[in-house]
Amino acid sequence: MPRFAANLSMLYPELAFPDRFQAAAADGFRAVEFLFPYEWDARELAARLKGNGLEQVLFNGPPGDWNGGERGMACLPGREAEFRAGIGKALAYAEVLGCSRLHVMAGLVPQAQERDALRPTYVSNLRWAAREAAKQGVNVLIEPINTRDIPRFFLNRQDHAHELVAEIGEANVQVQMDLYHCQIVEGDVASKIRQYLPTGRVGHFQVAGVPERHEPDVGELNYAYLFDVIDEVSKDCGWSGWVGCEYRPARGAQPRGTSEGLGWLRGRRA
Ligand SMILES: O=C(O)C(=O)[C@H](O)CO
Ligand SMILES: [Mg+2]
Hints:
It contains 9 helices and 8 strands. It has helices spanning 20-26, 42-51, 80-97, 115-134, 158-168, 179-185, 189-196, 223-237, 257-260, and strands at 3-7, 31-33, 55-60, 101-103, 139-142, 173-178, 202-207, 242-245. An 8-stranded parallel β-barrel has the order 1-2-3-4-5-6-7-8, surrounded by 5 helices. α3 runs parallel beside α4 (115-134) and α7 runs parallel beside α8. The protein is globular and about 45 Å long. Residues 35, 60, 103, 143, 145, 178, 181, 206, 246 line the site of the ligand O=C(O)C(=O)[C@H](O)CO.
């Protein structure tokens, strides 16, 4: 059975962020992920994890000016110093949270620039981040994201991500395979799991229904089937990572809306 982690940036929206740890544990989760922890003290978050018996399995590096529309800095020439400072900050959080996966967002292709022209900057930034992360046993993850949600995002396809991982050439760089984005951009999701999971280069999965990004049992993807594929391939190749539940509960911020939407998970937990 896949192991499922609650994404606390999206689940339990009716609760204050620090209270979501307890809610996730009460719903039977043993692990969590979230996007950005930086407005919270790392020690306070570590205490929430410990107090609720939870493991932190993933979070994101600083994305640049998120409210101003930025979605990462890794591909942006001229932002290297800020990128490196952000990785330093993220790794300090990773240490305190005991987290071994860091998602580094690629960033947007600036207007009037070609994606390929940004590749050297992206590769060199990721290589630097990976070497820093390796010093504390952290894996750096890169995630293809669909361009409907994030227009002009640098990284959209699984094949592009795996090509870049090979070019970066560091053992601790892996792909965060978000099946929601994968279905929107390219489809053929089960075949892609079978193609990429055995390579050892998939570090984490994330799931959500398509197209609304609600619970996995809402929408066009058959997750019961896909979880069986992950199970089957994992057994063959010895993969033992996590599946992040990164969706917006269909019942929105209604009290207990997240918990009531977890029916899809019943009987599926490792
Ligand atoms: O949007 C996603 O799918 C993510 O996983 C990012 O971390 C946030 O954009
Ligand atoms: Mg994702």
